[in-house]
Design brief:
By secondary structure, the protein is of the alpha+beta class. The chain is built from 17 helices and 12 strands. The termini are far apart.
């Protein structure tokens, strides 16, 4: 009888052991699955952080480019272009990484494509700003337009990045919620078996250690990114500040103190302490603006002066945007720009504009003098000389007749010179109205103007089909007249002039050192003749005003015709080149944008 209880006890122990093993295996399997879910959630969280970091690097690269461009435009120092030149590689690297990271998210892929298109447009805007800021191609109106357009593009880029960050933030919130649910073990698992929990901890330890190492790496990258941001503020002469509207606490970046002319952290950031630096002329306006921030929850662009402790006056521009963090706290994020150099440059530009207006008025006065006051006495000289009868000339001495002849020749040259100067002036001052025109018709008009000399020299002109372009018709017609007339004038003696005009469409990429790369296609028009040619060393100087390669006694002219050609082509945003071999003719090549 005593054996039976022992038997039953032994069986009970076996049953309990089997049940314990079963429970252990069951709990272990649950723990293993839980560990796998935890690992996946951790990867998803880290995936979101990676996307946020790459977006931050992308924005940092664009800001570097913007800062470098602004520094170059202001100082004309090529060293400022280094961040701009390297920014494209950084942007491309970040874009490739983001494309991989968002490969499983069609919505973010679409947002990334839109963002990349905006970035491409921003870099095109950078190139246009650099182009029209260059003294050779300077155009204030276009520069202002592109600078303004660039600012709008930058806002759109920020908006797109914020949009992607918001989406990732939503994903992050969901993933963090799942993550929190998965790491919170139920009380049943905790009480059931401590060993099972220990086993779970051991299994998860390795993966958690890896995650910690990865977090250290990403934290280091964030610190580097923060350092780059601080350096960007110094280079770009801007600063950031945060105003917690709930606690009324203000935080400055280190460069904010530097812009005010003091050491970082040298005073407690407050509204009153900042007003101490504002110039007395702007204190009331800034005080009202700061009071309006609390009511309107935003800060539009405001311009003001700052008086530093060393009494130096600096010009600032500030703006801000209201943000709400995860805890619901309302924070006004602001940016201050030191625009002193830009302000002084604007003053200089205004002075130059006034000088330019004065010059234009003087040029208009010159046109009036050339077209009226100069021509009137010249007309009288020619009239009076023409009225000297041949009978009177017959009784004059040889020297007197020679003087009369020289006066007639000089008067004619004076007439041609005045007419050419007026024509050159009109290429600059007249209204540039572009009209879609058939260049074949303009060529025919030019040919009819030269009919007399063409027939006199029995010239042969061959022309291929010319394109239809938006041009200033009378200027293109004058271009044809001058180039064909130049070939006829410098034809070789006892040789029938042969002039060939050919046209083809070309890509600007084929001429990177010559053509504007922002325009993809150009029409190349080539004028070839068999004239006397010229020394190739003068292929650029022949387009200079009053530049002549021959004496006025050998060939008539004023040295203005080819200068007019170059001015006409420049009015059409094109290019003109010349090449020649003495005794074998000349080639003039004109590039007109499509």
């Amino acid at each position: 009888m005593k054996w039976i209880p022992n038997f039953n006890s032994s069986n009970s122990l076996r049953v309990i052991f089997v049940i314990a093993v079963f429970i252990l295996l069951f709990l272990s399997s649950i723990g293993y699955k839980h560990n796998q879910d935890l690992n996946e959630s951790s990867k998803l969280v880290m995936h979101t952080y990676e996307i946020n970091i790459q977006l931050e690097k992308l924005m940092s690269a664009i800001k570097d480019a913007e800062t470098g461009q602004r520094g170059y435009i202001i100082t004309r120092n090529g060293r400022f272009l280094s961040p701009y030149l390297y920014s494209r590689d950084k942007v491309n690297a970040s874009f490739i990484t983001l494309k991989k990271l968002t490969a499983d998210n069609p919505v973010q892929q679409q947002n990334l494509e839109r963002l990349f298109k905006l970035i491409i447009q921003r870099f095109v805007s950078f190139e246009n700003c650099l182009k029209y800021a260059d003294p050779k191609t300077y155009d204030k109106r276009k520069l202002d337009n592109h600078m303004f357009g660039g600012r709008i593009l930058m806002e759109n880029i920020r908006f797109q990045v914020d949009k992607m960050n918001d989406i990732e933030k939503k994903y992050l919130d969901k993933r963090l919620k799942i993550y929190d649910e998965e790491i919170s073990l139920s009380p049943v698992f905790s009480i059931s078996l401590f060993l099972t929990a220990l086993l779970f901890i051991l299994l998860a330890y390795r993966q958690i250690s890896r995650d910690i190492e990865r977090l250290k790496v990403y934290n280091k990258k964030l610190l580097i990114s923060s350092g780059l941001m601080a350096e960007s503020e110094i280079i770009g002469k801007f600063s950031t500040w945060q105003w917690d509207l709930d606690s009324d606490k203000i935080d400055y970046s280190d460069n904010q103190f530097r812009l005010l002319g003091v050491e970082p952290g040298s005073f407690v950031p407050e509204k009153e302490s900042f007003l101490d630096f504002v110039h007395h002329d702007d204190k009331d306006a800034i005080a009202k603006s700061m009071a309006g921030i609390i009511e309107k929850k935003q800060l539009p662009f405001i311009y003001y002066k700052v008086s530093r402790p060393d009494l130096e006056i600096r010009y600032f521009k500030s703006t801000g945007k209201l943000l709400t963090d995860q805890q619901g706290s309302k924070i006004l994020l602001g940016i201050n720009f030191d625009i002193t150099d830009e302000h002084l440059l604007n003053i200089e530009l205004q002075e130059r504009n006034r000088e330019l207006e004065k010059s234009n008025k003087e040029l208009a006065s010159f046109n009036h003098v050339a077209s009226h006051d100069l021509q009137e006495p010249l007309r009288k000289i020619q009239t009076f000389i023409s009225r000297v009868p041949e009978a009177d000339k017959a009784v004059m001495s040889d020297s007197a007749r020679d003087y009369i002849s020289k006066i007639e020749v000089s008067a004619k040259r004076m007439r041609v010179l005045i007419d050419d100067l007026l024509l050159f002036s009109r290429t600059n001052t007249t209204k540039k109205e572009f009209i879609k025109s058939n260049l074949n018709e303009l060529f025919e008009n030019a040919e009819s103007e030269l009919t007399e000399i063409i027939q006199e020299k029995k010239a042969v002109i061959q022309v291929s089909k010319l394109p239809k372009l938006s041009v200033i018709p009378y200027q293109i017609e004058q271009l044809f007249i001058n180039l064909i007339g130049n070939s006829l004038k410098y034809s070789q003696p006892n040789t029938i002039p042969e002039i060939t005009i050919e046209s083809e469409k070309v890509l600007s990429a084929d001429y990177p050192d010559l053509l504007d790369q922002s325009v993809k296609k150009f029409h190349k028009i080539i004028f070839t003749d068999n004239g006397m040619g010229f020394d190739p060393q003068f292929k650029e100087t022949i387009f200079v005003l009053f530049q002549r390669l021959h004496s006025k006694t050998d060939y008539p002219g004023t040295g203005i015709g080819l200068a007019i050609c170059k001015k006409i082509v420049e009015n059409h945003k094109g290019y003109i080149l010349a090449d020649s071999t003495i005794g074998k003719g000349s080639i003039f090549t004109v590039f007109l944008p499509e």
